[in-house]
Amino acid sequence: MARLKGQSNNLTILSVYAPICDAPDYLKDKFYADLQLTLNKVPRKDILVIGGDFNARIGTRLNNSEWAIDNQFW
Known about the structure:
- This protein is of the alpha+beta class.
- The chain has one helix at residues 25-41; strands at residues 2-4, 11-17, 47-53, 60-61, 67-68.
- It has one domain (2-73).
- It has one helix and five strands; from the N terminus they run ββαβββ.
- A hairpin with a 5-residue loop joins strand 4 (60-61) and strand 5 (67-68).
- The radius of gyration is 17 Å and the shape is elongated.
């Protein structure tokens, strides 16, 4: 988390990296609990930017372990 002070508003930037979809539920639950605790610390008046890798998967499965991006979006 980085917080930058501005003249009229402050900017808070969060960089997150979520566990993969196949991770155990307790790890995913801990990630989202930690994210919520961090968000609770951000002042309401701040401009908030959250970026990172939420490990979403797009497209169709090629086999049991490979994923492909569906070209209909490009």
